[in-house]
Design a protein that fits this description.
Strand order of the largest sheet: 4-3-1-2-14-15
Distance between the termini: 24 Å
Shape: globular
Order of helices and strands: EHEHEHEHEHHEHHEEEHEHEEEEHE
Strand content: 15-25%
Radius of gyration: 18 Å
Number of helices: 11
Largest sheet: 6 strands, parallel
Helix content: 25-40%
């Protein structure tokens, strides 16, 4: 069975890995966190593209993965075409969920909360032109939310006042119509969803692409989603699948990563995961 390699600049991609494991619990997965280069938001584009393509290509060769998931919007909006030229395996990217958000809005006003890198990419503007040309899109580049999510996963409390300042630009009005959908345009942000809802100026619908990414992974693996039972357990003659193997690797030392992964994925103990230095 082909394994899946999930890549992110840090811990944010664990939100995607969690959904993959929920949908396909028997799937073997590898996770690579580029913590030595975190954060990606303000990297120069050419340098970031070269870095990510080289790192992920080497990781695919090392792990023998059959599917690569770029669980980072900042990287995906920049390197997906380059990676698809270089690699022969399926590649699943993570881009702002503008299409589903446009289908959900009642007011026609949407905010996209992402990193500074994501909101300025041509890829993002192409998504808007293709899927939401008649929708008012408010792009908000946050400098600090990804780091705040990392800190929360490491067990530190969220500074509500600081978070409120980061999300404040998302709450806009246009011709008397309020933004009613908020796209979480970075895989780190779902870990702050409860906090975002708590400090929102008014209720909005949060759009998290993680589940859709997991479904796409299942599709490229040839899995029949109709055969997935409620609760995320794939059927096998009426029996739930055994848990797939799970390994982690980080670039640079991060001694607390096992604890972060355990918390993010809901693992019961450290023996549930192995690390590959």
């Amino acid at each position: 069975m082909a394994s899946v390699l999930v890549f992110d600049s840090g811990s944010g991609g664990l939100s995607v890995l969690k959904e993959i494991r929920s949908l396909l619990p028997g799937q073997d997965c590898h996770y690579l966190a580029d913590v030595a280069a975190f954060p990606y938001g303000n990297w120069e584009e050419g340098a970031l593209a070269e870095h990510v393509v080289g790192l992920t290509s080497d990781a695919v060769e090392k792990t023998g993965a059959g599917v690569l998931v770029i669980a980072c919007s900042t990287a995906s909006t920049l390197v997906l075409p380059l990676l698809r030229e270089r690699l022969t395996i399926p590649i699943v990217g993570t881009v702002p969920a503008i299409k589903p958000a446009a289908a959900l809005t009642d007011t026609g006003v949407i905010s996209v909360l992402a990193t500074p890198g994501t909101v300025k990419r041509d890829y993002t503007f192409e998504l808007i032109a293709k899927w939401a040309p008649e929708t008012a899109i408010n792009l908000v580049g946050s400098e600090n939310l990804a780091e705040m999510a990392e800190q929360k996963l490491a067990g530190h409390p969220v500074d509500g006042q600081r978070l409120a300042a980061e999300i404040d630009p998302c709450f806009v009005e246009k011709d008397g119509r309020r933004a009613d959908v908020l796209v979480l345009g970075c895989t780190h942000y779902p870990f702050l969803a409860d906090d975002i809802e708590r400090y929102a100026k008014w209720p909005v619908r949060l759009v998290d692409p993680s589940a859709a990414i997991a479904r796409r992974v299942a599709e490229v693996l040839g899995k029949n989603i109709a055969d997935v039972l409620p609760g995320g357990h794939q059927s096998d003659n009426g029996r739930a699948s055994e848990a797939g193997a799970l390994t982690f690797e980080t670039t640079g030392a991060q001694s607390d990563f096992p604890s972060i992964a355990r918390s993010a994925l809901g693992l019961k103990n450290f023996n549930d995961l192995s690390t590959d230095p």
